[in-house]
Amino acid sequence: MKLTPAGLLIVNNIQLINNDFLQKIIILEQQVQNIQQQINGYSQDIGQLQADVSVINTELARQTHFRGYFTTNDEILELTNPAIGDYAYSAEDLLVWDYDGSQWVETDKIVPDQMTPASDANPLSDGTVTAGTSAEYSRGDHIHPLNISTSVPISDTADGTVGASVNYSRSDHSHPINISSTTPLQDSTGSVGTANSYARSDHQHTINVETNASNIPVVDGVGVNGSSTFYARHDHVHPQQLTYDGNVTATKFIKTGGLASEVLCANGDTTTI
Fold first, then answer.
1. Pairwise CA distance, residues 86 & 68, whole Å
2. pTM check: above 0.85
3. Percentage of the chain exceeding pLDDT 70
4. Structural domain containing residue 44
């Protein structure tokens, strides 16, 4: 078999095909290949459809064996005409029950609608109370962001306030000192006071004693409560009163060194009885 320059195909010295006819055969072969590729594509589609049908059949079989969602386990145990592969959901323990051919068996599989997904969102800071709307649960190792104040604590005030901050104070926070910078007052008539500051632990009141040297303790006389706002110094000395212009009344006069048999005279002498 050979092909001549003129485009003729010669087999056993017999001319069979010219060049034009050969080109048509080549085109037909290409078309056959395209059709074959399409058939292969259809085969893949058919395979996918068959897989989908298998999934549908499995779901139909599952739904066929699904006996329902029951409030208690006893309701499942009382189901009639169960078959192998039957299963039911229990609201009592939120588990799936399977029928093994002789009895209903409680599995460890959770009812699908009770399988809550884990949340991937960051936990919120404490704030205004709310029931929340999330249907997801928090992971066991979740951490809430710090909800602490970054402001300097305020000083104590006279009236106080409940406050409106939603932040917590750090455990090592310290309030600014709220103490008085004025000299403590002397004792006087007494007063509740209006200052909003505390007194320092080492404060000292100014001495509340008479500092005028000309004001000396009074001589003993008629008793009186007095009106002075000063204290008497512990080493003060009253002046002696040696002369009395008025009558003297006393229950007794005692002279140092006198005897029980002696009488004290007005001039200071003693006379034996």
1. 10
2. no
3. 83
4. 11-64
